[in-house]
Design brief:
Oligomer: single chain
CATH class of the largest domain: Alpha Beta
Order of helices and strands: EEHEEEEEHEEHEEHEHEHEHEEHHHEEHH
Mean pLDDT: 80
Distance between the termini: 136 Å
Strand content: 15-25%
Number of helices: 12
CATH architecture of the largest domain: 3-Layer(aba) Sandwich
Number of domains: 4
Length: 506
Amino acid sequence: MATFVDNVTLHLKAGHGGNGCVSVKREKFKPLAGPDGGNGGDGGDIVLFSDPQVTTLLSYHRSPHINSPHGGPGMGDHRQGFKGEELVLSVPVGTVVKDPDGTVIADMNVPGMRVVVAPAGQGGLGNAALASTKRKAPGFALLGTKGFEGDVMLELKTLADVALVGYPSAGKSSLVAALSAARPKIADYPFTTLHPNLGVVQAGEVRYTIADVPGLIEGASEGKGLGLEFLRHVERCTALLHVIDCATLDPGRDPLSDLDVILAELAAYPVPSDQVPLLERPQLIALNKVDVPDAKDLADMVRPYLEERGYRVFEISAVSHEGLRQLSFALAELVEQGRKEALANEVVPVIMLRPRAVDDQGYIIRVEGGSGGNIYRVIGAKPERWVEQTDFNNEEAVGYLADRLAKAGVEDMLFKKGAVAGSTVIIGEGNGLVFDWEPTMPSAAELMTGPRGTDDRLNQNNRRTNKERRDEYYDLMDAKQEAREELVRERDAGLWQVDDEIADES
């Protein structure tokens, strides 16, 4: 027996972007070749594709961990890293994609729909792409960013034109087998159907699908039986067919009471706001098992009462196929009418352009209190991505990050928020990059004379320069000359005498 799975949690890990390359062209007779490091390749996205040929999520239930390939690193001679191959996952039409919090990401109710559920990491730029008129030979490259890593939930809501509802063992599976080529499991005990069965019916020129939903009992909308688990498969149906057992031997049951119980459960089941309530959709009633003599008599008795309530009633038998042709064409009329209304009421998508606000800088700075003083947290997609792309073992890369943050106005915003030199600044949520903020001097990349991979603004070298040594030497010589002149003045004033002068006087 085939296994039906309609709820799956996927553990996704998209590919990381490749790192950029740091390389300088070294070739004879080409002294001005310059940097030639290539960019890293992007990782592979994980994409969901609504495929009409797929009917179950069973394969993902057995293998929920899915990884897409990483991007390759850049190489010298302007060679780009290879891109990770996109990973496409086929899901049935009618699959609802949610995040772990239950927020709907996408409703894949259209065949051929594509949704990127796990975006891949971005490849880093090589030093050739970072070269400019001010920074002619960068000694650094950007790192690749990490791809999405997390969980998404898939919920299958079967897209069928007609849903068969009724009590367990009412003959819904037998009716599907009689109307279509589907062969569901059929037995004489309740809850034989544990998963929806789909069948395709051809009535004249109209082709439609029917769904056999597991039997409903009183309290199904509250979770009793299997009703709550599978009532969601009724949400997308155009019409409902109530299959009522006229040959039941259970005490206290009759066709009218069975119908009232099912209607109450359908009314209690909530549907999305953009969908028609279940009881407001077209409904037909099929009085099943009229091949049994007592059931035939009971059907003739209750039919007038059902017609008085406004229902169109059919007396059928899934065993002898009595009344099935009339029922199939009646359902085809409802389905065809529903399709015409859907085409007439089709909403044309409206593209709304929302311009970016003047004061929207793409990030925010949140001031958080701490035991050691205020903590300034920078939150934004760009600053966080820039930090992730920075190689902190390279001084020039750190200086480039400082220039990017200053150009984006982060330092000015920190001043406005009250930050001073030495304040704790964190970039990103949670355990982000923590550093003691020191206002940077304006970019002097065009004036830098240090070796590649270094930044003079970050170099805390305390060695004296030649000018400082020269100035110290001249100061020392001036001090010695002044001391000599002072001694001469004291000798001329008679404050002290040398030994030879004392011997001559004696």
